[in-house]
Amino acid sequence: MPENDDPRWPSDDKDTSSAEPKGAKGEGEATIWLPMSGMANGKTEELSVPKVTPESGSWFEPVVEVEEEPDVPETPTPKWSAFEPVTPVEPKEPEAPKTVFVQPVQPRQTDKPDWDQFDRVAEPPEPEPEPEPKPEPPRRPEQTRVEPPAPAPVPSASMHARPVRIEPAEERFDAEATVGIQRPEPPSQEPPAAETEAAPAPKPKRKRKALLITTLVVVLLLAGMGGAAAMPKVSNRLGLPWAPNAPKGEIPKPAGVTRVLHGPDINGAGPTKAGLAAALAGPAGSPDLGTLTGTVVDAASGEVLWDKNSGTPLTPASTTKILVVAAALLSMDHGTQFSTKIVQGAEPGTVVLVAGGDPSLTSLPLGTDSPLYPGAAHVDDLVAQVKKAAGGKISKVQLDISLFKGPTSAKGWDPEDTAAGNTYMAPVLPVMADGGRADPKNDHSPRVANPAAALTQKIAGKLEAQAGGTTTAPKDAKVLGEVKSQPLAEFANSLMQLSDNLMADVLARQLALAKGAEASFTGGATATMNVLKEAGFDLTGVQINDGSGLSDQNKIPAKVLSEILAVAAAPDGKDPRTPKLRPLLAGLPVAGGSGTLEKRYGDPASAAGRGWVRGKTGTLSGVNTLAGVVLDTDGRMLVFALMSSGSDQNKGRAALDVVAATLHKCGCR
Questions:
Q1: pLDDT under 70 in the chain at which residues?
Q2: Active-site annotation holder among 14, 286, 321, 647
Q3: pLDDT tens digits for range 376-407
Q4: Cys staple from 437: which of 187, 310, 445, 538, with CB 3.0 to 4.6 Å?
Q5: What is the dotted CATH code of the domain comprising 339-486?
Q6: pTM of the model as a whole
Q7: Which residue windows does the record flag with biased composition (Basic and acidic residues) (predicted)?
Q8: Any idea which architecture 273-332+497-665 has in CATH?
Q9: DSSP SS3 for 575
Q10: Which of helix, strand or coil describes residue 561?
């Protein structure tokens, strides 16, 4: 039997099993009709076995003599062979197919039907008496598609008459004219005993093959899961009993955990002066420090524990920023934001960029936060607002930078500090993008020569307009767009972390504006000094010319730095100034972790301070300073200010780090 057990019905009632192949003599049109007389009247006649005469010497070109019935109309015979597809035949009437079965002649001396009788040539057995006609079996559904049949067997003398299926259009089909056709189901009545004893048809091989494949897949999956479960990582993850990290004993009961952050120790005994002096004798006496001044204060008690000429004014470099930030935090609301606007110009189609003193405005796309100034406003946001509010085409963008007064560089600055390509500073103007940097993501990116004009040109390009130079915005002009900086506390944090010179000098001018003074270098320095004096700090010996500390003309004693930091680090409720100054500590870089201290404290001599020291750095030619806070081994908060003059930059920095790390290692009682 073939492997394909799908029924394949022929497309008509012709027996083409003895037709010549297409292309041979007669073009394959020899058609044999099986005698089916009386079928129309509901009668069943015995089919006679055709007489086959091999005239051509081959069983493949038989001549079958068949007496055709006159009552069966002949239909055109399609040209097809066993190797060509069969066109589906639609029934002429939409009625269910009607099948009539003719009992085939059973061979003698056998209890089971010989299903292979069409595959071999054997002697014809003697016919048996015609069986009683069977009742009509249940009708099969109409076939909508007929697959090409397999090559029909050659009729021989050993072949018996086959059942015939009659379609609604009176078309007759040999029930087994094509190998692989499923036999019709027997009637519902009880079959004869001889038929019930017949062997069932063999099971399809395809189903057995599918079952075998399914079983194999299941076995492989189970094997794979078992192998995966045996892997240490998988078994550990699933907590299986054989996992390497499975508990070897009873699982302990969970212990209670209290998640409470403890602040510095303010009640215990702090370091003694003698103990601290002994610990710092070596590090503070290093020749790499040049001329060193400094002080160490117990933040909890305010007691000075160590002092070395701390009242001597020295060049502070960037530790000057501590004074500017402290003054701003003391006198301004911590939520203050600096605005940048674009307003309607005096002429039609003209708009004016009004600088509000925010150098942190970023040119990065919306949705991309600035890595240098987290929370900064976006240029694209400002432009989008203007496009929406303008109501017409904009032809010109002008710039109003009248907010700041005086020179853009301070006394005591190196001329190269504001030159194009410098990485430390840009001209101090009230508006720019990304602090004037060419690369908004790189703190060490070169600064542009005129950052305000560059921003104006960028905005004009986004508005498809031309940059129109500087002007003064009309009073009460219609605001087309406005963006604001991060709040003051966050602004100051970015300033301290990066030791951003430009932001420090802009903040000094904002402080001057808040105090009603001129927004210039002089106005900023004066406002800073006045606020700190009013807050009760002794500024004897202080002289400042800018807010950044780039001026080598600035002078600050170490004790002023330590006093401001000590108030910021004091216990809660002890000093009314502390709440306002506390954000100052949050902006201090962490040793080996952030800001200007990120790459320091890697040497073995200073590694102990890594993660514990927080300080503001300051560096100029021959000047190295460090001021901040540190916890000692007893959890005591110590405030320090160290100023070195006449020291090499690299060696001086390293020596200062050793002193601060020693403070952390010291219990010093």
A1: 1-205, 228-230, 239, 247-248, 260-261
A2: 321
A3: 999 999 999 999 998 889 999 999 999 999 99
A4: 445
A5: 3.50.80.20
A6: 0.64
A7: 1-28, 109-123, 131-145
A8: 3-Layer(aba) Sandwich (3.40)
A9: coil
A10: helix
